[in-house]
UniProtKB/TrEMBL annotation:
One of its GO terms (cellular component) is nucleus. InterPro entries: Homeodomain-like_sf. It is found in: Nucleus. This is Transposase Tc1-like domain-containing protein.
Length: 109
């Protein structure tokens, strides 16, 4: 697993509650086993907008869903000789989702 961990709301409120109670951010980091940037960023967010909710995901949305990825892998296993372009056409015929051959090859790796 990666070093990235999602904090639940209870943990976020505990992080924010410690500086409000007068505890330093360094002490909070040590006791909660977190990096200083996590505590600092969460505290800044709480002060700025008064909330600890996670921001919605950013970046480009995925071209395919998990179900479509699974479908691609199944049809690729059934027809081992199919090219990425053929698999892209099969996906379009089955689901109506148009993706490039590069996207298909990325999903299959």
């Amino acid at each position: 697993m990666s070093n990235h961990q999602c904090l639940d709301d209870g943990m976020r409120w505990r992080i924010v509650g410690r500086p409000e109670a007068g505890q330093s951010q360094v002490q909070s980091c040590r006791e909660l086993n977190l990096t200083p940037s996590v505590v600092c960023n969460l505290w800044k967010q709480f002060q700025d907008i008064g909330s600890i909710e996670r921001k919605p995901g950013q970046g480009r949305p995925r071209a395919t869903t998990v179900t479509e990825d699974r479908y691609l892998s199944i049809i690729a296993r059934r027809n081992r000789g199919a090219t990425a372009s053929q698999l892209s056409r099969n996906l379009y015929a089955a689901t109506g989702t148009r993706v490039s051959r590069v996207t298909v090859s990325k999903r299959l790796h």
